[in-house]
Amino acid sequence: MAAQVPTDALKGLQVTESAKANGKGAKPAPNGDEDGLGEESDDDDADDNAAADSAAAGGAAKKKKKRKPRKKKKNPTAQTEPPRVKVSQLFPNGSYPKGEEVEYKDENRYRTTNEEKRHLDNMNSDFLTDYREAAEIHRQVRQYTKKVVKPGQTLTEIAETIEDGVRALTGHDGLAEGDALKAGMGFPCGLSLNHCAAHYTPNAGNKMVLQQDDVMKVDFGVHVNGRIVDSAFTVAFEHKYDNLLQAVKEATNAGIREAGIDARVGEIGGVIQETMESFEVEIDGATYPVKSIRNLTGHTILPYSIHGTKAVPIVKSNDQTKMEEGDVFAIETFGSTGNGYVRDDMEVSHYAKNSDVQHVDLRLSSAKSLLSVINKNFGTLPFCRRYLDRLGQEKYLLGLNNLVQNGIVEAYPPLCDKKGSYTAQFEHTILIRPTVKEVISRGDDY
Ligand SMILES: [Co+2]
Q1: Which residues does the record give as a divalent metal cation 1 binding sites (predicted)?
Q2: Which of 66, 166, 244, 256 could make an SS bond with 281 (beta carbons 3.0 to 4.6 A apart)?
Q3: How far is the CA of 229 from the centre of ligand 1 (A)?
Q4: pLDDT tops 50 at residue 47
């Protein structure tokens, strides 16, 4: 999810204690898993096994004779299509694949083998496990999506393909109160077309259909216990956009390469811009320079908070802010054939509660009750109108707008360059670990 210059990116967002507490709701599953595979424990596993356990224990010898020998429940070993198998079953004991680990350079080279830094890394094992699980879910869902996405599908269908996949793979459908805070969507699935760069997702009743000629930015987040993986790619069916996509992919990888402990974000922006703007693209007979969109940035990610306090510009700047050990960054770059500048346009779909708001006395009862729904289900995680719809909320717009006017909830409108232009995006989440930089969302695809 893109951060905007300067306001969004520079807000000092804090994690609320209640959000933290809610996120730690996963209980260990009962021991005595019949298949003995010691699968990752969470609430849903407990539910799945409850029936089987009681049949095995309570039903004991008496009933056993009457029944046909029950087949042993086996853990699936492969993902289905569409993806519906929890990744915690595919990777028992939390043994999720690592991201791409990159050693630090120069004066930070010592860290890879340093005893103290390795110790610090080991103390973060829950953090790493949650992050790797979320990243694996992102990879599996996006790779399925890339396989099936076709012109003629509605944006709503595509968004639901992704969101249903993410929720199933976390094992949390997010319908029971507080469930979406344990794991699920880290922010709404953005499907921004052509001149729109970010923060578009269909609201209820949207009939937009993906066209053969479209350039679609797919930007979605997966979180496990508030650890958000923010990663995005661009889909195009026509080869005329190849150079645009290539420019942005290389610019993002340049940013990832430059990132590291003590790296200055302004310099990283310069390298990103240089890479991006070394490309041009010919579309329908006209040649365009590819420009970095100068008022969009990458950003730090905090627990349950998608936009942290640091920004990573994608143009050269004097920003001397340094990356530090322990930071989590979303490195995202946007290229455009237009002005290289976005402004708010079209209907809002994305919202998030501000984490730094003081208590406000709300007079509107619909705003009060909606805020309670937001607190219980999303905390400070971004959500969209469709997520309120699926919780059964109705006629909430007045209340929602009131929360926005009172500064409690922030609206994130779609961000678009000039009409007729094309924009592309690639994004990865990276962990600035004590010993190495881990590109947690890296896959074979990008
Ligand atoms: Co982002």
Answers
A1: 219, 230, 427
A2: 244
A3: 9
A4: no
